[in-house]
Amino acid sequence: MSDYVRIKLLPLDHEFTVRRGTPLQDVLFTYGVEFPCGGNAVCEGCKIKVLSGHLPLTSEQENMLSRKEASEGWRLACRCRAQEDLTLELAQWEAGVLTDESQFEFTAREGLGIAVDLGTTTLAAQLLDLKNGNVLAVETGLNEQGRHGNDVMSRVFYAVTEHGQAELESIIRRQLGTMIENLIKTSGANSASVRDVAIVGNTVMHHLFSGRDVSPLGQYPFQPPNIGLAEFPAVQLNWSMVPNAVVRFLPCMGSFVGSDVLAGILATNLHKSESLVALIDLGTNGEIVVGSREKLLFCSTAAGPAFEGSCISMGMRATTGAIAQVARDNGSFKCRVLGNVAPKGICGSGLVDAVAVGLQSGLVREDGNITTESGKLDLCPPVQLTQADIRELQVAKAAIAAGFRILAKNLGASIEDIGKVYLAGAFGNYIDRANSHRIGLLPVPPEKIQPVGNSALLGAKLSLFQPGNDMFSQVADISRHVELNLDEEFQDTFVGEMGFPEPTSNAHSG
Known about the structure:
510 residues; alpha/beta; Ubiquitin-like (UB roll); 4 domains; 6-stranded mixed sheet; 14 helices; globular
């Protein structure tokens, strides 16, 4: 018997080989399958249909799926392993199924619309029928600007010092144009019916798409003069496949708080909440919003690339070979490696888990010092964490926690007053909430933390149904940017958050 099995995905018509026994969660995310509940089998966001081969129906799946769904071959990918050759149909790629599985209210319009989440690393686009909100086609990909730097500041540097802004603009406009063309072809839709294209992204992506000078984002005081709505006729972008469309890059909120955060506010209804709530998007820049319908305060804090693995000695993105989860197992580390292969490194979610487990087992002290003789945490050979790695995590989590506390204090509130924290983005979807609380990254009880998946894309979809500026002005009227570098208390608060919290009686045991 071969150690490998073949998986075919429909309607993508894509085939690949994985090691027998590989969890499907480890490989299907790349192909657009979302895991909104973090793979805990408490939602149906990762449904797949078995067309050939066999995937056992576990009791957890029986509790979630209807009898009809189960008999038709539907399964939850988060609870399945590839033990034999499989042909699978992806639920997310069916017409009428939203990738993020979110329901939302809208006022029907005629025609079609396209929503785009333009991320620094990844891109996601959906074609919608504006009469009923159905998603007709989906396209995802890696941002091709990445060959000029993985992070936003690398691209700012290339744009300014290498005179590469025009090239970066051309790359992303051409790539999104190809994705939109594929959406039309996949769905068989009438391209002339596409009325609006709504794009969201961080401030650097906003500038590098819209043709606005990115150089102010590379030098103090980091305040670009024009962060507002950018609007183009599609033909101006050479997008002849949607000749009647108006393309709008939604307005940014601040220097390093982009329209992806604005979209997240719209998606979670922060601006309509009667009680105090928060939205956090974790990344190189951690964007934080705290408030209610009375007032919203927001900030960007330089968390550094620890959560993306790039400044960790054996850090890597969440791809095959990355340790993504760590738990305690009889006093040692038990690691889950993406792709069910030998470990190559560790990604952000695994890093949070590993340090939390180290704290629980006494291998890491509350001051961050490693207590082992070697001064390292041996996770799963050859992967280990060094003392410098722990310090990098401390800096990143302190920046997020301090920004969170400063916003709450500026509202005349405390962390305890915040009723719910929405955690946006892919990293937020997979991070262990209890472990993030244990290390002090999110200083609220785990039960208050709610992952919301791709809230940026959902917010972009919502904007298609209200193409005017009214919904943006509703948010802008109650929002204020807090510049943490100008806050007198930020540095002391940051230093105070560098240590890890003392353990509590109900600490997560992994």
